[in-house]
Design goal:
Length: about 150
C-alpha cells in the first residue's frame, strides 16, 4: 500500500511519519476485518479476547485483574465486557467465598462452543490477511515489530 496515495496527499512524507501512518492504516484494516468476521456472533474483538483468555485458563477461574493484564487491547471497562458475555451465557461469574470483593469468571460450555466457531472464522481471516507473506517474511515482520 502506498501511504501517500492512500491518504491522498501529493506531499512526500518523511520516512518516520510514513511508517507510523502505515502502521495505523494496517492496524485499522486488521481491526475492521476482525470486527466484520465477529459481527455474526454479536461479539467484539475485545469480548473474543476475553473468551480466549478464559479458555486458556483450562477450567481455572480468572479475575478481572488477570483478564485486564492479559488483554491484547488494554481497557478499563473489562467489567462491562464480562457483563456482555454473561448476558450471552458465554461466561459465569462467582463471588469468591473467602474475599467477597474478588470476582471469579469462568467460560461456560456455551462460550466454549461459540468460541470454537469463532476460531474457525478467525483462522480464515488471519490466513486471508497474511496470505501474501512467506513464513520467512512473517518471521522477519515479527522480529521487526518486536523491536517496538
Amino acid at each position: 500500500m502506498d501511504v501517500e496515495e492512500r491518504i491522498r496527499t501529493d506531499y512526500k512524507l518523511p520516512l518516520e511519519q510514513k511508517t507510523i501512518i502505515h502502521l495505523l492504516l494496517v492496524n485499522n484494516t486488521i481491526n475492521e476485518r476482525i470486527a466484520q468476521a465477529l459481527k455474526p456472533f454479536d461479539v467484539s474483538a475485545q469480548q473474543f479476547n476475553v473468551l480466549r483468555i478464559l479458555r486458556g485458563q483450562k477450567g481455572k477461574p480468572a479475575n478481572l485483574s488477570t483478564l485486564n493484564e492479559r488483554m491484547v487491547t488494554k481497557m478499563s471497562n473489562t467489567t462491562r465486557l464480562v457483563d456482555k458475555l454473561l448476558n450471552k451465557g458465554y461466561v459465569d461469574r462467582m463471588t469468591c467465598p473467602s474475599n467477597r470483593r474478588k470476582v471469579e469468571i469462568n467460560i461456560t460450555n456455551k462460550g466454549n462452543a461459540a468460541l470454537r466457531k469463532m476460531d474457525q472464522v478467525m483462522d480464515n481471516i488471519e490466513n486471508e490477511l497474511l496470505q501474501q507473506f512467506s513464513q520467512k517474511e512473517l518471521q522477519q515482520l515479527n522480529f521487526l515489530l518486536h523491536k517496538f
